[in-house]
Amino acid sequence: MTDIVQPLSGTGIGLRQPHYREVFERRPELAFLEVHSENFFLDGGASMHALERARAAYPISLHGVGLSLASADALAGEHLAKLKRLVDRVEPALVSEHLCWGGVGGVHFNDLLPFPYTGEALALLADRIDRVQATLRRRILVENLSAYVECRHSAMTETAFLAELARRTGCGLLLDVNNLYVNAINFGFDPAARLGELAGDSIGQMHLAGHAVVDDCLIDTHGSLVCDPVWSLYEEACRRFGPKPTLIEWDTDLPALDVLLSQAAQADAIARREVAHA
């Protein structure tokens, strides 16, 4: 495995089509831009032109949603081949994928679904991540999931599972702080304690996002401001692990660009404060 570009530091935002023109014209101070890999699998067209323009101005993080690493189906070779072409073309700073499944029996559910944290699942995922990293010839990051059911057969916590997966494969972790908080509220555990199950050197990126509060749970929506408890958990993560490349993730009810930039500035301020206190 090889690293194509220098490691990132600082905060980025997701590049979304309504903000293309403003980002290219204003060139705001950002550490990187992140895009969903699958949106750029075509070899040409307007989307690829926009990504190439973005790549000329900023480091790029590719974030995948469709590889379905934990599916009982075979690893999707065609999907992986498309991802490799994109990686070779863009030479991103980071490549990440959700640790989940999203289809079985050839049927795609258009969702990011949980799975039991067992030794069997660990062996399956370790093999698949090894194959993905060998194909891409680089380390990838895998992201913890927001979930609304727990599997009764799980033999370990999600964070312990992630830590062991990183140890076995050399992959990195994308710590989604909002997802950890959502699960903590939904399932009744201490999110700060779960941070203690992770090794700081395995964490290659963090995500921050908003969620919705409904009657009996929290829903990860990526459609609102980061809330105060998630900011506090992010502070704790920075305190434990040091600053990591951090993304302000916002995918629905997209606000004005300045809202995202303000959230990015807040994340930068927290990271700088933790460095000063270290």
From TrEMBL:
It holds the Pfam family MbnB_TglH_ChrH. InterPro entries: MbnB/TglH/ChrH (IPR007801), Xyl_isomerase-like_sf (IPR036237). It comes from the Bacteria. PANTHER family: UPF0276 PROTEIN HI_1600 (PTHR42194). This is DUF692 domain-containing protein.
